[in-house]
User: Fold this.
Amino acid sequence: MVDHLPVGTEAQRPPPRQATLALLVGRVTTIKLAYWTALTVFELAVPLDPAPRDERFGQSVSFAILATLVACLWARRSARAIDPRLGELSRSIPTIATTFVAATVVASPASLPLLLVERQRSIEGCIGSITCHPEALWLWVATLGIGFLLIPAVFAASLRSSS
Assistant:
């Protein structure tokens, strides 16, 4: 792609266009949706009865760590990927702000099914509906933080410098 900036001058780069920001939001949102979907599907696939509670929680934490690593690697690769039509995403205040704000608003409902599953796990075997396994909810809180903060931070830090 050819830059339309004058050669030899210190002109400011043009601000990101709407198509560039849509590409950015699409990439980050896809990663976050896949992350929460994978965690939810795994939690639904883990059987309730056969394994002891601690063993199941250990499996959940192990899978969450693996999913987090995969999502962070995907975010890094995606931030540096060059789109054939729009070029590369460069690090600037608008792109970093968009990474956190718009993608969070678009992808936030994807964490709710996992919350419902973990809430059910937290009351499993309890008398009434009082939470007696809070570790399930803490797992959701941790993955929520990872999805809202860590994954976009890795993406933003991996963007190519605008200079």
Remarks:
- Strands lie at 90-91, 160-161.
- The two ends are 16 Å apart (CA to CA).
- The chain has a mean pLDDT of 80.
